[in-house]
Amino acid sequence: MPTSNQVIVIPVLGDNFAYLYRYDEDNAIAFDCGDCDAVLHVLEKNNLNLSALLITHNHFDHTAGAKELKKKTGCALITTGKTVNDGDVLSFGNENIRVIATPGHTASSVCFYRQPSDTDKQGYLFTGDTLFAGGCGRIFECSAATMHQSLQKLAALPPDTLVYPGHDYTLENYQFAGETEYANEIIKQRLADIIRLHQQGKPLIPSTIEMERKTNVFLLAKTDKDFAALRKRKDRF
Ligand SMILES: [Zn+2]
Question: Which residues contact 66 (CB under 8 A, 6 or more apart)?
Fold first, then answer.
């Protein structure tokens, strides 16, 4: 699995992830916050100030701790539709974070893309409940075609981009993938790797865009119709 010193993964509420991204020695931004105390604890442990909390979408398990975190740290609260829109670029220190609108899971879902810079070529993508490792979110407020297009947009990012999803459904996603018509040798190998890592208690994230392009069945589905059928089957899996 790829790793990064800049991203701190914070497991919250069972299978949710909140993230801290340190953009310099003393400062960080957070992505989603289902639990204020969990994020505060990690900030304190690492001696970090929090500049902003960026929210991928308005579901309780991603927002429950947001108001309290803002109150306790004085951070800016950045939410889609109110403070940011598609294509906006947010700057923190020397870092630029691009907002990518990805309607599908909810109508106002966004992903946040830390763009490569001259000094750090690594890209980072925080995907909320749009793209998971080996899967994608359920469709609540949009058509399957809209969700499919949103995922294709993410798949077009540079292959080495690190992908940080809002939940750890990795094992379940690859178990599903292994039972579909897309289950080629690469997917079967990936499922075996994930099972082994899971048994060893090792982290199953981050993923990369390249890995998702090769093994995420929702990205392998070619047409909106194929995608919609696959998503329906996964809903019942
Ligand atoms: Zn959600």
Answer: 33, 36, 53, 55, 77
The amino acid present at 148, given as its one-letter code, is H
Q: Ligand 1: distance of its center to the CA of 57 in Å?
A: 7
Distance CA 116, CA 4 (A): 14
Q: Which residues contact 97 (CB under 8 A, 6 or more apart)?
A: 29, 54, 89, 90, 91, 112, 113, 114, 115
Over residues 4-22, the mean pLDDT reads 92
Distance 105 CA to ligand 1 centre (A): 7
d(CA 119, ligand 1 centre) in Å: 34
Domain ranges of the chain: 7-235
Q: What is the pLDDT of residues 40-64, one digit of tens each?
A: 999 999 999 999 999 999 999 999 9
- Say yes or no: domain 7-235 is CATH 3.60.15.10: yes
CA distance 94 to 119: 9
Q: Kindly give the distance from the C-alpha atom of residue 130 to the centroid of ligand 1, in angstroms, as a whole number.
A: 8
Q: E strands of 107-161, at which residues?
A: 110-114, 124-128, 131-132, 135-136
